[in-house]
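DM from R.C. (forwarded with permission)

"hey, sorry to bug you on a friday — could you get me a structure for this? deadline for the figure draft is monday and I only need the backbone to look sensible"
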Amino acid sequence: MSRDLVPHTFYICTTDECRKMDERTIHEFGIDGFTLMEVAGNKAADFIHSKFPDGGHGIILCGKGNNAGDALVVARVLAQYQFQLTLIFVEGTENLSPDASRNFDLLCKLDSPITIHSTFDPSSLHFACDFIVDGLLGTGLSSNLREVYADAVDWINQQTAPTCALDIPSGLHGDTGEVMGVAVTADYTLTFGAYKPGFFLNNGPTHSREIILCDLPFPNHLKDVSHFLMDEQWVKRYKSGKTRKHKYADGMLYIVAGSEGLTGAAILAAQSAWASGIGAVTLITPKGLLDIYEKNLVEIIKKPVGNSADVSFALSHLKDVQAILQEKPGVLLIGPGLGRNKDTIAFTRQLLATYEGNAVIDADALFALAQLPVIQKPAPSNWILTPHPGELAALTNSTISSDQERISKASIMAGNLSATIVSKGSPTVIGTPDGNRYITGYQTNIFSRAGFGDVLAGKIAARSLIDEHTTLAICSALLDGKKKADTFIEKNDGDYLAPLDIL
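My reply, with the result:
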């Protein structure tokens, strides 16, 4: 899906992309850095003002760079609303960045109750405050915090007052979400211009918490971006509004799944697909399992292959399955509960090697592909692969030790295979053939139980029949699961979710 469909307020920019965007806006477009700082600081101040009453007391901690400059704009704006402010410069007020120094001069011209400390001395900070502003360090951090900053961060984290971090919590790596020795645990992260990958990876969600985007006047054509935040605000704009004329109008969803002892996976996938609202679902099954599905899947069309002794797929079923797939246009979902015996693996490989339609490949079908020395996709087909981290490691014949490594490998595989990779995990990431990456901005660890992968595969396959764009179909499926999970948790006081809860 083209990035043109995603509003710029859902862009995720790496540290380097943010730096280049800032530089190009200043030098090519002509908006100077001081103006950008003024806009950023005003928007952050507006949010803080909306949360805390006039006349409240805020402690603002500043470093020496432009993050301190943003904090000084915040202080100047809040001072106009009679906030009582204490500013702490942990390395003094000398040698501030040019724009920060200019804003310090402006602040000093105000006739407002502002107390300024040029050193960080926790022993002098025994008074209560209503909020804290973290203006220590921005996104450029690449090494562990020096002692004076680490001490300031430790002090912030010990306070009970809510903390507002400017752009990024100090000590959090903007790209990886790793803690650089120690990091501020912010209640609100007021990020400037774009979201940062580190908010969603590793320790990022714990330290960033509620993220508020303060949009800046960066021209969109100067943004070199490949990461996007999945969000219902933009996804729902493109959901299909067409009316189905008959049950086969969207096409048929064919499910090749299930084996003895693993029929539950096939049932969950079929139920999930049917609940998504498509017109028809056909479950192709070894004949020996037909009675189970007849009792549990009333609405689903069943197409048995083989004889009543067959309880898993085998090469002998290949021609019959291929013939069924030719009956009506549609999408193939293959893998849930398929099993891993040698004959089933051979069947799966041969079916995928010859099937030229659209396919969602999950679970045991991914296992079958991972055993191949080289995975080859029929050129006309459109594949969506849905691996969890272990399956992705097997598919790429590698080890995966971090979120950013998982995202990178999924993206590389998507490009090499010309397929779409849904890398399940927290966060879940979509890697597309054109190099774009779509990241869930919500916690997905609530789905890390057996059966949720089968439900998601069914949802993705169903949405791919309805939605025009592959990526949009996957985003819709993921966000539908989130919406139903949120509703369940709200009604059931945080009890454990079961896969059936989000059908």
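R.C.: lifesaver. The radius of gyration is 27 Å.
me: no worries. DSSP finds 16 helices and 18 strands in the chain.
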